[in-house]
Amino acid sequence: MLRGPLYRDGYPPQLSGHETFPIRYGWLKKAFDAVQGTVDEEDNRQVFTGPDAIARFGVGKNMVASMRHWATVTGIIEEDPARRHISTTSLGRLIFSDGGLDPYMEHPATAWLLHWHLCGRDTKTTWFWAFHHYPSVSFERDTLVQGIQKLAEEREWPRASVDTIRRDVSCFIRTYVVQAPSGVGGYEDGLESPLTELGLIKATGRRDGFRFVRGSKPSLGPGVFGYAVTDYWQQHFPSANTLSFESLTHEPGSPGRAFLLEENDVVDMLTALEDVSRGVYQWSETAGLKQLIRRQPVSEAETTEWLQKDHLHYGQLELSRAFG
Q1: How far apart are CA 129 and CA 9, in angstroms?
Q2: What percent of the chain has pLDDT over 90?
Q3: Phi, psi (5° rounding) for residue 294?
Q4: Pairing, β 281-286 against β 289-294
């Protein structure tokens, strides 16, 4: 039996919203600032939909909608339809506020964190299916389209036409794979997605051929990994005090799958997590049973501290390179 949130009854697929534009450098900061500046207004959705939105963001109407979409699905802003209101999240304020950890997305920790929000959760259907269900390392654009189309037909998802899926897959690939400049687009079209720097997907050189890059991720810190473990635990096993190595490494939605880690890499990250969490998480290999023990529920303040450590570590490395 196939597992995971995409196979639950009533799962609401999301195969659009980005207006075919991948996430761009600077978009999340612009969206965050616009929402933060209007957060005291009763109905501030006009910041994205009003007549001055195009001038405010300096991009076209469809790009404004895309910017709003990406800021929402990465957890930087959140919308309350009942109140007709948009607000910034604690994560958004931590990263993108003036004086935040990384308002201009200069640290790889931020890109890894955004990747987790896109692929460690089931909000973005194509993203989740590709990282957690696609059965091979290599793929072609059409094989992803066909796989998701088959799933949509099996689950009887509405509004999941092949054209919609094809556009979503194209946007997915452009999010992670460096694109050759076309020479015909404007400045915005020439910008790459910040997630291409993670090196998670590479072009193979064949037409429409790509591969997932599994293995160690040196720029992935224990703080972001710990944040992901905590989020995964709370989403899927909130009452459990232990999680098996198998679950953390291979289950749909797991950090091991989302970050394309091999088993040895996961062990290394779990060992480092024990230190960064000050023993809240403990890695155990007793009597051949590999599992992660959670000694107490993890608070938002703790995961915030772990993220701060990752960003601080990166800043120290940059200083060392500059003056070493």
Answers
A1: 16
A2: 85
A3: -110, 115
A4: antiparallel
